Fold each of these.
Amino acid sequence: MVLKYAPQDPALAAFIKPAAQPAPPAALAAPSPEPSRPQPPAPAASPPPATTGKTLVSLRIDTDLLAAFKANGKGWQTRINATLRTAVGK
């Protein structure tokens, strides 16, 4: 006995799979993805260090001295530098 597939019969549809379809030729295949967007230019390099001859250092000073310099607002590091310059006579 040969059974014919009837799409309207859900009991048979669960057991019968459609035949595999051959792969489409390359010309008919899905289009390739969009070309990637151009990347933004890399950020500019940091400016060269100032030519003032300053060197970054780590210095431990008393808390009350630091508080006194910071109490006058911005520029406290410059004021410490000026005070040290005066202390060494330059």
Amino acid sequence: MYKNENEIPLVLSTEDVAKIMNIGKSVAYDLMKSKEFHIVQVGKQFRVSREIFLRWLNGKEVA
């Protein structure tokens, strides 16, 4: 688990999101597909920037 924000990778995978939120991979996958925040899809893999994800997680507007 990450001890602080600086240890979190700049670009998060579905597995990273699952670890941060303490949820299962399938729930994290559904969250990444939900369009709650901007993601990048490469093939079947999803990525989200640390900044965008943390803003969303902290309840700040994500543009």
